[in-house]
Design brief:
Blueprint: H1 3-46, H2 59-92, H3 97-100, H4 105-130
Helix pairs in contact: 1-2, 1-4, 2-4
Protein name: DUF202 domain-containing protein
Keywords: Membrane, Transmembrane, Transmembrane helix
Transmembrane segments: 59-78, 110-131
Length: 132
């Protein structure tokens, strides 16, 4: 096996690893998008009972939290897609400095932030209705 074949095999392996990592992150982002939009939709559905049910007093804050988490997850999804393209280009161009920029780091951080918002909103709902 000569140097060219070794380099081609290594590039193929790195591309496969990048694609697997990207698929995993996109799946997580998709799950967050579905969770935030479903929760927001459920809260919006409850607004029709807002005038008659005093327990829904601060539902606007919960809707805003789910909407903010959804927007953050969308931005994270876009960042991860852009990072994937940057990493694939770095592999194709034999440019190791493309990995130094850590192009997926911001997208992953945004997904963690979105998860935190989702957990805090669900915890707030649970604590609010626990005493009923």
């Amino acid at each position: 096996m000569d140097e060219g074949e070794k380099l081609a095999a290594a590039k193929a392996e790195v591309r496969a690893d990048i694609d697997d990592w990207h698929d995993l992150l996109q799946g997580g982002a998709n799950s967050l998008l579905v969770a935030h939009s479903g929760a927001k939709l459920a809260c919006l559905y409850q607004l029709e009972d807002y005038g008659t049910n005093t327990q829904l007093k601060h539902i606007g804050l919960v809707i805003a939290a789910f909407a903010a988490g959804f927007i953050i997850a969308v931005i994270g999804y876009i960042d991860i897609s852009n990072g994937h393209v940057k990493l694939r280009l770095a592999v194709l161009q034999n440019n190791i400095s493309g990995f130094d920029m850590k192009p997926l780091q911001r997208g992953i951080g945004l997904l963690y932030l979105s998860v935190g918002i989702l957990l805090l909103a669900v915890l707030a709902i649970a604590l609010r209705f626990f005493w009923l």
